[in-house]
């Protein structure tokens, strides 16, 4: 059985020292090992940005796609081979700006993959511009007088989009993050995990300490029921999106693939490519 | 008796004009006639004039006709808009419900028949199309039984009564016309048909069926005219072979989902038109850079922007050849007709997977939506070639990544799909080393760029173009897609030494194979449907004899008619004589 070390390669990430993404990488590796996966059974699909480099730092099949498009590529991979465990990943710019359309639709479509966003509320790789999840008033190169737009609260957007699994954590809590990613991978359907992953270079506001002070764990909320969407949404709104833990899960929902009759009998890649003569004739007769 | 006739039915969109044409022409195809149809429609659901023009012939036809012989009108607008296309002595069969009238200057006959009234008396005015079909059948002196058979297959699901009512409507239409026959001048009787069995389908169907035969079991697409029929065909038929279609949120998602599926080893594709292709450009680059097979069908329509969404044009050519940033190896194909579209689609998937490149399969609106007769497809010509795709586990130490981008002589590296043991590697749109790790060194860049581009350096299809005529010719005409059928007919009408070429391999340009024909031609004429003569430009970029190359273009949204091309050709031939 593979250990988390088997999910490591010898490539040194190009992230800044202290970057939150290191812990996300480690948590994914640990969760994969804990879930009994082998590296060749995993495909990690990423977008563009600092976080997008993740696919190159985990030993597994990896596809580093274009900006904002990790989700459609990942969904295509899963539709082709249901036996693979598929993780899509990227940053807040990737998922909530250029790729937001895909995010909302992947949430509503419910294909059985896990989407992990490393949310640092700033554009790092392009050297410090505002992001969709930057707080109002946040000063960056592109918002010298402070952002005048409202911030997107990822878990609120996810709930509103019909998500069946919504979780949020912070990269400093690697133990909880690992447990959440394990649960997310076990969820039958689309699982969304937003991870606050501080940018130590361009975000001097939303720091590790800031999250320690401002995040509320759902375990600490009395009678919190993460299977009840109304409770989840109320608390998200009450805490302005600053919750951590498994926020919501619909265990009854069927994944996209499960709802297609016969689709899961065999992974698509293993299906016969040549048409039987009978099928050929029947289909051609329809053109007469 | 007539060797060929052109029949057109028109009315308001949404009142069954489409199905009238469909029932009439499908029956004629089953009777053994050759058909070629053209739909005029608008970008709206209901209302607005629509018509369906069917050319019926005892011999093969691959073009719309110069004019029409029979016009079936469900409203006055149909007469006002189309009667001028009738030949002298042509006939209008019109629903007497709207008191039809025609321009007195036109030398055509007007025969009012109570389509709606007859249908209403039989229980439903929906059957007015059957009355019109009966009347048309009588005029052309066609056997009635094949129409009855057609009605049976179409309506038996709805019950015997519906079949009977429709048969009665057909019969009464036939009889009503029969009473008029004594007043009708001229010959509208078709010669008997041959017995050969033929398909009757749109290009989009041929492409879709080709994709199924190529092993496609997953498709991702976004609706757009004139490509939607491909997605709809796949939605209906993929489940029969265990596959499925996702209708995505946009074209970027569609193409990247197809890339994901192809990367994971399941052949998949997407289809769209110009606007969708514009959105896919970055992803086409991703396919090229990551060497992930990809097939995109581009059914061209009138551009730019929303342009003429329901009209014929061939103006995406330059975008398809050049439209992505950076240099990638890419193939652009253009089937020569509907039959070829089936085989070309299978070939597109084989090329994409063998060379690990994006392949754009072009069509144009007229090829995509114009229903036409075709020889049946031959399953023994279906061949799936997956090239260097590795689907079986490998006995290999996985301490190091697999060299997915190893620098091979032919540029094509082995491609293990995710899940294969021993094949772990990384894939990225960033310039990368043989294992797929991002690598921006100057040396690696040059090696990898050369490797990718080498894959198609000497690429030529088995049949890069379809040629009719000799290497030496007085005039060589080059066209592509649906225009070729029109060129062919026009060329046959002229008593001149004309060679026609339907270019199938558009990119990389097959100059070596073409050169003998170009060198051997007195003059070269490129005929295409766009403003800026795009194919002509591509030819000139690859061939030096610019002074011998002439261009003829049309960009009004309607397909070429044979006489337009015939006139143009003969004027060119005359000029040459004078010189």
Automatic annotation (TrEMBL), chain A:
<dbReference type="GO" id="GO:0030976">
    <property type="term" value="F:thiamine pyrophosphate binding"/>
</dbReference>
<dbReference type="InterPro" id="IPR029061">
    <property type="entry name" value="THDP-binding"/>
</dbReference>
<keyword id="KW-0408">Iron</keyword>
<dbReference type="Pfam" id="PF12367">
    <property type="entry name" value="PFO_beta_C"/>
</dbReference>
<keyword id="KW-0560">Oxidoreductase</keyword>
<dbReference type="InterPro" id="IPR032686">
    <property type="entry name" value="PFO_beta_C"/>
</dbReference>
<dbReference type="GO" id="GO:0009234">
    <property type="term" value="P:menaquinone biosynthetic process"/>
</dbReference>
<dbReference type="InterPro" id="IPR011896">
    <property type="entry name" value="OFOB"/>
</dbReference>
<dbReference type="InterPro" id="IPR051457">
    <property type="entry name" value="2-oxoacid:Fd_oxidoreductase"/>
</dbReference>
<dbReference type="Pfam" id="PF02775">
    <property type="entry name" value="TPP_enzyme_C"/>
</dbReference>
<keyword id="KW-0411">Iron-sulfur</keyword>
<keyword id="KW-0479">Metal-binding</keyword>
<feature type="domain" description="Pyruvate ferredoxin oxidoreductase beta subunit C-terminal">
    <location>
        <begin position="199"/>
        <end position="263"/>
    </location>
</feature>
<dbReference type="GO" id="GO:0051536">
    <property type="term" value="F:iron-sulfur cluster binding"/>
</dbReference>
<keyword id="KW-0786">Thiamine pyrophosphate</keyword>
<dbReference type="InterPro" id="IPR011766">
    <property type="entry name" value="TPP_enzyme_TPP-bd"/>
</dbReference>
<dbReference type="GO" id="GO:0016625">
    <property type="term" value="F:oxidoreductase activity, acting on the aldehyde or oxo group of donors, iron-sulfur protein as acceptor"/>
</dbReference>
<dbReference type="GO" id="GO:0046872">
    <property type="term" value="F:metal ion binding"/>
</dbReference>
<feature type="domain" description="Thiamine pyrophosphate enzyme TPP-binding">
    <location>
        <begin position="48"/>
        <end position="195"/>
    </location>
</feature>
<keyword id="KW-0460">Magnesium</keyword>
<dbReference type="GO" id="GO:0045333">
    <property type="term" value="P:cellular respiration"/>
</dbReference>
<protein>
    <submittedName>
        <fullName>2-oxoacid ferredoxin oxidoreductase</fullName>
    </submittedName>
</protein>
UniProtKB/TrEMBL annotation, chain B:
<dbReference type="InterPro" id="IPR002880">
    <property type="entry name" value="Pyrv_Fd/Flavodoxin_OxRdtase_N"/>
</dbReference>
<dbReference type="GO" id="GO:0006979">
    <property type="term" value="P:response to oxidative stress"/>
</dbReference>
<dbReference type="GO" id="GO:0016903">
    <property type="term" value="F:oxidoreductase activity, acting on the aldehyde or oxo group of donors"/>
</dbReference>
<dbReference type="InterPro" id="IPR009014">
    <property type="entry name" value="Transketo_C/PFOR_II"/>
</dbReference>
<keyword id="KW-0560">Oxidoreductase</keyword>
<dbReference type="InterPro" id="IPR029061">
    <property type="entry name" value="THDP-binding"/>
</dbReference>
<dbReference type="InterPro" id="IPR022367">
    <property type="entry name" value="2-oxoacid/accept_OxRdtase_asu"/>
</dbReference>
<dbReference type="Pfam" id="PF01558">
    <property type="entry name" value="POR"/>
</dbReference>
<feature type="domain" description="Pyruvate/ketoisovalerate oxidoreductase catalytic">
    <location>
        <begin position="14"/>
        <end position="175"/>
    </location>
</feature>
<dbReference type="Pfam" id="PF01855">
    <property type="entry name" value="POR_N"/>
</dbReference>
<dbReference type="InterPro" id="IPR019752">
    <property type="entry name" value="Pyrv/ketoisovalerate_OxRed_cat"/>
</dbReference>
<dbReference type="InterPro" id="IPR050722">
    <property type="entry name" value="Pyruvate:ferred/Flavod_OxRd"/>
</dbReference>
<feature type="domain" description="Pyruvate flavodoxin/ferredoxin oxidoreductase pyrimidine binding">
    <location>
        <begin position="210"/>
        <end position="449"/>
    </location>
</feature>
<protein>
    <submittedName>
        <fullName>2-oxoglutarate ferredoxin oxidoreductase subunit alpha</fullName>
    </submittedName>
</protein>
<dbReference type="InterPro" id="IPR002869">
    <property type="entry name" value="Pyrv_flavodox_OxRed_cen"/>
</dbReference>
């Amino acid at each position: 059985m593979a250990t988390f070390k088997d999910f490591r390669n010898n490539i040194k990430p190009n992230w800044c020292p202290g970057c939150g993404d290191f812990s996300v990488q480690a948590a994914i590796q640990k969760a994969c090992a804990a879930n009994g996966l082998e590296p060749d059974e995993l495909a990690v699909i990423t977008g563009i940005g600092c976080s997008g480099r993740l696919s190159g730092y985990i030993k597994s099949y990896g596809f580093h796609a274009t900006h904002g498009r990790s989700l459609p590529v990942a969904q295509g991979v899963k539709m082709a081979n249901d036996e693979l465990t598929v993780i899509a990943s990227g940053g807040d710019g990737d998922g909530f700006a250029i790729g937001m359309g895909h995010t909302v639709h992947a949430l509503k479509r419910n294909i059985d993959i896990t989407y992990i966003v490393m949310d640092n509320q700033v554009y790092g790789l392009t050297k410090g511009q505002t992001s969709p999840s930057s707080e109002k008033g946040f000063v960056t190169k592109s918002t010298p007088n402070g952002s005048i737009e409202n911030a997107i609260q990822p878990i609120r957007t996810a709930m509103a989009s019909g998500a069946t699994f919504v979780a949020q954590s912070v990269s400093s809590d690697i133990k909880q993050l690992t447990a959440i990613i394990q649960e997310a991978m076990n969820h039958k359907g689309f699982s969304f995990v937003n991870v606050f992953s501080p940018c130590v270079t361009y975000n001097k506001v939303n720091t590790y300490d800031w999250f320690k002070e401002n995040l509320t764990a759902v375990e600490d909320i009395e009678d919190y029921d993460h299977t009840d969407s109304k409770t989840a949404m109320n608390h998200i709104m009450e805490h302005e999106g600053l919750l951590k833990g498994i926020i919501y899960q619909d265990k009854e929902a069927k994944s996209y693939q499960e709802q297609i009759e016969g689709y899961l009998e065999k992974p698509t890649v293993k299906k016969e490519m040549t048409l039987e003569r009978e099928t050929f004739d029947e289909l051609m007769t329809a053109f007469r | 008796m007539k060797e060929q006739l052109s029949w057109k039915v028109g009315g308001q969109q949404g009142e069954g004009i489409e199905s009238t044409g469909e029932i009439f022409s499908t029956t004629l195809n089953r009777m053994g006639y050759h058909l070629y149809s053209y739909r005029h429609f608008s970008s709206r659901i209901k209302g607005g004039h629509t018509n369906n023009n069917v050319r019926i012939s005892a011999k093969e036809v691959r073009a719309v006709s110069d004019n029409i012989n029979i016009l079936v009108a469900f409203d006055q607008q149909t007469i006002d808009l189309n009667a001028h296309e009738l030949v002298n002595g042509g006939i209008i069969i019109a629903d007497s419900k709207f008191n039809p009238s025609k321009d007195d200057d036109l030398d055509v006959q007007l025969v009012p028949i109570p389509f709606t009234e007859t249908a209403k008396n039989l229980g439903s005015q929906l059957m007015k199309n059957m009355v019109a079909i009966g009347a048309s059948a009588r005029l052309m002196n066609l056997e009635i039984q094949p129409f009855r058979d057609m009605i049976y297959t179409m309506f038996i699901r709805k019950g015997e009564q519906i079949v009977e009512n429709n048969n009665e409507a057909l019969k009464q239409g036939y009889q009503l016309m029969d009473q008029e026959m004594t007043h009708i001048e001229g010959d509208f009787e078709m010669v008997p048909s041959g017995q050969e069995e033929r398909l009757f389908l749109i290009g989009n169907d041929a492409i879709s069926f080709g994709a199924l035969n190529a092993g496609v079991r997953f498709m991702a697409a976004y609706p757009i005219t004139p490509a939607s029929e491909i997605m709809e065909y796949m939605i209906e038929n993929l489940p029969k072979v265990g596959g499925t279609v996702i209708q995505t949120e946009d074209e970027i998602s569609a193409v990247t989902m197809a890339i994901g599926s192809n990367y994971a080893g399941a052949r998949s594709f997407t289809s769209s038109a110009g606007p969708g292709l514009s959105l896919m450009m970055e992803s086409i680059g991703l396919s090229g850079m990551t060497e992930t097979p990809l097939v995109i069908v581009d059914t061209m329509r009138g551009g730019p922007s929303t342009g003429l969404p329901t009209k014929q044009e061939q103006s995406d050519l330059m975008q398809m050849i050049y439209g992505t940033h950076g240099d990638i190896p890419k193939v652009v194909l253009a089937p020569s007709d509907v039959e070829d579209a089936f085989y070309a689609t299978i070939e597109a998937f084989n090329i994409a997977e063998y060379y690990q490149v994006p392949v754009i399969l072009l069509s144009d609106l007229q090829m995509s939506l114009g229903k036409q007769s075709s020889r049946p497809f031959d399953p023994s010509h279906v061949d799936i070639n997956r090239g260097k795709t590795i689907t079986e586990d490998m006995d290999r130490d996985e301490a190091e990544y697999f060299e997915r981008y190893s620098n091979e002589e032919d540029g094509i590296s082995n491609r293990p799909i995710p899940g294969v043991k021993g094949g772990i590697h990384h894939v990225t749109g960033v310039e990368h080393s043989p294992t797929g790790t991002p690598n921006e060194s100057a040396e690696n860049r040059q090696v990898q760029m050369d490797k990718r581009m080498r894959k198609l350096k000497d690429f030529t299809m088995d049949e890069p173009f379809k040629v009719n005529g000799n290497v030496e010719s007085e005039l060589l005409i080059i066209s592509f897609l649906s225009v070729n059928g029109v060129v062919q007919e026009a060329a046959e009408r002229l008593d001149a030494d004309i060679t026609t070429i339907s270019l199938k391999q558009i990119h990389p340009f097959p100059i070596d194979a073409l050169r003998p024909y170009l060198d051997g031609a007195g003059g070269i004429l490129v005929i295409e449907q766009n403003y800026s003569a795009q194919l002509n430009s591509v030819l000139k970029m690859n061939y030096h004899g610019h002074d011998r190359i002439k261009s003829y273009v049309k960009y009004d949204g309607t397909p070429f008619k044979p006489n337009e091309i015939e006139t143009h050709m003969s004027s060119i031939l005359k000029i040459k004589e004078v010189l």
